[in-house]
Amino acid sequence: MALFCSKITFVKKDAPLAQKIMEVIKGGTIVYPKDSNYLDLLFQDIKSIRNIAVLLNGNIRTPKMEALHRLIDWLNVRSTDGLKIYKLSLDNSWLGSNPWLSGFIESDGKFYCEFKLNSEGKATLIKSYMRLSQKQSYKSTTTISKNNSNFYIMDKIREFLDVKNVT
């Protein structure tokens, strides 16, 4: 019986990526639901969940880190080998130093392109936009009072992308 289950869903053509993630995590199961064009990568054992927590630890930049810290506490209580995971703080490194921002934008961003055509069908005006939005605060499930505002990371992204403050 699984105490915990983490699931990542992929389109079937991305099965090699799911396989690679299984190799890195050293665990997991791929499930192909009947009559579907997707697959689920499931992590249900403590060893795999622990490996995921270790990989994420210290690489999170948002208040969602609180959820990872709760998972680490849960894993540490269940540790049978005496090895504990030490909770690392938010990643405050330069946004251009790793691919975190590209994944964040991929997940929560939108790109738009607008253009006007002249009578010959050629573009005369091209406008491109990027939108990135987050809830103002991360809703924690604990009663511990913490700074759960997403303002800090959104402001760091604004500075990194050289966007002016809009008031």
UniProtKB/TrEMBL annotation:
SUPFAM superfamilies: Homing endonucleases
Statement: the UniProt record of this protein carries the keyword Mitochondrion: yes
Lineage: Eukaryota, Fungi, Dikarya, Basidiomycota, Agaricomycotina
The entry's keywords: Mitochondrion
Domain of life where this protein originates: Eukaryota
InterPro entries: Homing_endonucl (IPR027434), LAGLIDADG_Endonuclease (IPR051289)
Keyword Mitochondrion among record annotations: yes
Protein name per UniProt: Uncharacterized protein
